[in-house]
């Protein structure tokens, strides 16, 4: 079995990060990914607090202007550190919002995205390699997973079935000096993508309608 059964090799970078996220991100990212089922991209952006008057369609540029910029920030023409760029789209039942600077890292955001019977998850990865995942259903947080404390063999059986299946699809990328069963740093980002069916490349992403908005 592949170490990441839900992800063909072409969909991950060398460290196990979903390749479309690597290609969107700045070189040393402090970013997060929201996914929510049953909500439209524009509504999701507004739930997160984005100004509806600033939301616009997005065609991602071919490249980033420098190592500090994400592709969504480049699309908006904003300088690194001045605001976040939120990029949203929908595939099937699931909407995603990529936040290139982690400005929407708030437990209340995941709960709000899951309100009115929806399901949502938020995967956070900071510049210090702190990684976590929140999972909420119908406005209530069901799980919060700190990757540093995650032991797959012990913790997966106790997860809700849908989330457990996502982590099983995410698998594990063995890292030097890790103990057996210890999770790699990118497992939460893969799990969020697996949950929402976001097994993509950047070229795949370019083929769907996208929205972008400055935030903060």
Task: List descriptors.
globular; alpha+beta; 8 helices; 216 residues; 23% strand; eight-stranded antiparallel beta sheet
List the helices and strands and how they pair.
Elements: H1 19-24, E1 31-37, H2 41-47, E2 56-57, H3 71-76, E3 84-91, E4 94-99, H4 107-113, E5 119-125, E6 131-137, E7 140-146, H5 152-155, H6 161-170, H7 187-196, H8 202-206, E8 210-215
Antiparallel strand pairs: 1-4, 1-5, 2-8, 3-4, 3-8, 5-6, 6-7
InterPro entries: DUF6461
Pfam families: DUF6461
Commentary on this structure:
- There is one protein chain.
- The protein is of the alpha+beta class.
- It has one domain (9-215).
- Helices cover 25% and strands 23% of the residues.
- The chain contains eight helices and eight strands.
- It has helices at residues 19-24, 41-47, 71-76, 107-113, 152-155, 161-170, 187-196, 202-206, and strands at 31-37, 56-57, 84-91, 94-99, 119-125, 131-137, 140-146, 210-215.
- Strands 2-8-3-4-1-5-6-7 form an eight-stranded antiparallel sheet, sandwiched between helices.
- Helix 6 crosses helix 7 (187-196).
- The chain is globular, with a radius of gyration of 16 Å.
- The mean pLDDT is 95.
């Amino acid at each position: 079995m592949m170490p990441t059964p839900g992800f063909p090799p072409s969909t991950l970078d060398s460290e196990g990060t979903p390749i479309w996220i690597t290609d969107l991100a700045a070189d040393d990212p402090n970013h997060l990914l929201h996914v929510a089922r049953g909500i439209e991209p524009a509504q999701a952006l507004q739930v997160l607090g984005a100004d509806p008057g600033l939301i616009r369609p997005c065609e991602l540029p071919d490249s980033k202007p420098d190592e500090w910029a994400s592709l969504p920030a480049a699309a908006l023409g904003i300088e690194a550190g001045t605001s976040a760029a939120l990029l949203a789209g929908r595939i099937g039942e699931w909407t995603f919002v990529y936040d290139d600077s982690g400005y929407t890292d708030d437990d209340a955001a995941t709960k709000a995205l899951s309100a009115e019977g929806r399901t949502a998850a938020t995967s956070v990865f900071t510049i210090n390699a702190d990684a976590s995942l929140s999972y909420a259903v119908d406005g209530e947080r069901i799980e919060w997973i700190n990757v540093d404390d995650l032991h797959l063999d012990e913790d997966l059986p106790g997860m809700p079935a849908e989330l457990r299946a996502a982590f099983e699809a995410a698998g594990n990328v063995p890292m030097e000096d890790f103990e057996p069963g210890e999770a790699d740093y990118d497992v939460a980002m893969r799990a969020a993508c697996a949950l929402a069916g976001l097994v993509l490349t950047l070229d795949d992403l370019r083929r769907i309608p996208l929205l972008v908005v400055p935030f903060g």
